[in-house]
Every structure is written in C-alpha cells, then in structure tokens.
Amino acid sequence: MNRIRVSLLLALVAAILALPAHAQNKRKVIIDQDAAGPGGTDMQAILALINSPETEVLGITVLTGVAWRDEEVAHTLRLLEIIGRTDIPVLPGAVFPLVNSKEYIAKWETLYGKVVYQGAWNYAKGHAVHGPWEIPAMPEGAPITKASAEDAAHFMIRMVHQYPHEVTVYAAGPMTDLALAIALDPHFPELTKELIVMGGSLNPVTDDPEFSLTRRREFNFWMDPEASRAVLHARWPRFVLTTVDISVKTRMEKTLIAQIAKSSTPAAQYVARYAEANYLWDELAAVSWLDPSIITQWQKLYIDVNVEHGAGYGDTLAWTIGNQPGMGESLVEVQRDLDKEKFYKEYVDLLSRPTPNARAVTGKN
Length: 365
Known about the structure:
alpha/beta
C-alpha cells in the first residue's frame, strides 16, 4: 500500500514539475508593430501570434508607422481587452524616425517626385490625417487599460537579458525601436534568438502604383532609413525577411473573411467586423514564422538600405553572396515563394480559434 502511495506521490510531483517545463517550451516572442487599427494587417498579425498555442507573447512594442504611435497604442490596448489578454504589456515606442521626417520628405518630393504612401504622414483610415498626439474616435471603443510606463527599447533589452538566446523579435513596422535598442545596448541583437522582419522590396511583380515604378521603395524600411541600416548592420543570430515581392502574392479575400466570421470567438468576430481587402503583409511574416514550411522558396542575400539623401533615399539594396560591398551588411534569409493555400488555411485557423489564456476585462461593456 505504501508503495502505491509513493508511486502516486512521485507521479504527482513529476506532473507538477512538468508544467513549468511545458511553459518554457513555448516560443517567446516580442511583437514590434506599427499597430494601426481596428482590423487590418497589423492587428491581424498580432492576433495570429497571440492565438497560437505555441507562443508566449512577452509584450507588444508600438511605434509610429501606418498611424501615429499614441493612436496605435490605444488600438492595441483595446484589441487586448476584446480578446481577454490584457496581461500582455503594451510598450510605447518611437514617435518619430531618427533622421527622416514628414517635413523633410515634403522638400525631398520637390526634387524627386511624390511618395505615394507615407503612413501616418499622409494616410488615415476612417478619419482625417492628423498630428502625432491626437487620438480620433475609435470604432471599437476606447480602452480602459493603460500602456506600460516602460519604453519599447528598454523592454526589449530587458527581455533578451532575462531570456538570453530565447526571444524572437518579430518586427513588422519601421525599424526605429530596434535601432534605439541597439544604440542603448550593442549586445541586444546577439542576445536574441532571431529577428523576423516584414520589410524591404526587391523586384515585385505587380501593377500596384505604390511599387510599379519604385520597386525598391518599401514603407517599413523607407520611413526610417537610418534605423533600417542600423538593424541591417547588427549581428543577429538569424534574420528572416518577408518582402513586398512575396507579400503581394497574398490577399485578404472576402472568402477568408467569411470563413473567419463563422467562428464566434471575440478575435474572429473582431476580424469579421474590421477586416479589409489588402495584401497579407504582416500576417505572412507572422504565420510563416510559426510554420516555415509555408515558404517554398528561399534565397540568402546581403541586404542594406540606401541612406544617401538623393532619389534612392530609403530604397532596399541587395546582393548575392560574393557580390556584397563587405561593409557590414547582414546576410538575410529572404522568402521568395509560398504555398498560398496552406498559408490561408493556417491563417484562418489561427484567427478562428479560441484565444489561449483569455480572461474577461472588468469595467468594460
């Protein structure tokens, strides 16, 4: 009888000890995002990463990009309230690029022509273009929760020191937060596990006016070229790049929205309400990190960004191995093609499934 009790006790202890081990096996990720909302590629990528049972999202760092930072922070906080994940901290990041600015680009355009898409500087969805500190009325309702007092760069540095070589940084906005973290701690990149980036453009096959005549200009690298260059010259253990070239092969079709709408989960209903037809820019970077088999063709290239203040300012530069200048450029794993149907299926499944560890937010209707 005692042997049975001892065996049961040992089994119970083993089960308890296994719980933290299981948690440790989850893939730790920081989401660095220009989180425009509601809906759209930014929020849908965030949802895909949070909804995956494989991930532990350490925090969401938010910087100006598609919209201004403070507006994006509010949309992110509200999203987390809707899906019941207010335990995930939201960290305010950079409001302005290191060197580039809306005013400078207005002068640049008089020499080199108009830049079709400039994110927060010339584009807004559902309201007028506004300044950096305004937060227009939010269709999904304003959040009651608050952002962290810690800033994005210090948070990222703290996390990689706390979990050395375990943290994936997923970056799908301009590179300013990452550049600031590198400036504060040059060891930051080497302490990560890997960097996953949506950015850059090489030679996309598209008639989209944003890219058809300016094929090397991509917004995330272009908005803060000096920050992009700093990131592309840092020593990351692994660097994966989702470019415009592969992103324009995808589309948030109405059929995908309809499939997601069949689910009654808060995340799915949020997407069903606010999704729009567009390329799946950030979602592809996120879902292909979760399942790299989605990508059917890769190419290793040396990548950099043009920081000369001429006609090519902010353009993506690329070289095959052996042809690079050798000035510290990163060797990057560039995605070239995908299994689109597999991607769509996994994407729909992620946005339709129940959000792990969701809890209701009190005080909000």
